[in-house]
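Q: I'm teaching a short session on how sequence maps to structure, and I want students to see two examples side by side rather than one. Could you give me a first protein with its sequence written out and its structure tokens following it? Keep the formatting plain so it prints cleanly on a handout.
A: Of course. Example one:
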Amino acid sequence: MSWQENALCAQAGPEFFFPAPGSSTREAKQLCGACEGRVACLEYALAHDERFGVWGGLSEKERFRLKHGRG
């Protein structure tokens, strides 16, 4: 089975991981932190240049910094 089938986010609505601009991502990140698929999810987001939402416990800005080595 793939990480997507077992991911905790599959049990929550997409609005949870794609909040309105300026909204908190804290709850989504907490759920990601408890998910066994977090690392695979983050790897997927980085490989596919996902630019929106929380993936693998990181926001758009955090993934950009990670991918581009900025701190």
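Q: Perfect. Now a second example for contrast.
A: Example two:
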Amino acid sequence: MRLLRSTDLALRVLMRLAVAGDSTPTTREVAADMDVPYTHAAKVVAELQHLGLLAARRGRGGGLTLTEAGRTASVGAIVRTFEGDGDVVDCEGAAPCPLHSACRLRGALRRAQEAFFASLDPLTVGDMVAAPTGPLLLGISSRP
């Protein structure tokens, strides 16, 4: 299974904020740290804020901070939210699959997708930044 770019970025933003300590990087700084376009980072940050996983303050002294809900959030739940609940394959698209009514593949792929999510459920954002990841994340920051 391949994650959407927004899912990948959401996880990386949360991990980056988990090691930020007292600093409050801006969306622009996080985008630079992650080497992604600012507009893409801003959309992901807005969704994470909407989900209550991070807080964003504007203006002087503003920036992004991870909420307690963000630190303890299940990686599986975050991935499910960003990926959506669609099937791995589109059997009913513009050209519906002729095997749709008797296909066993669709169910197998759905079970595999759910197993993928379930394997991520016990992990939290906090777990993901344990050493050696956390110190490495601090090292990639563009901030002094």
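Q: What should students look for in example two?
A: Point them to this: The longest strand covers residues 54-57. Also worth mentioning: The chain is about 55% helix and 5% strand.
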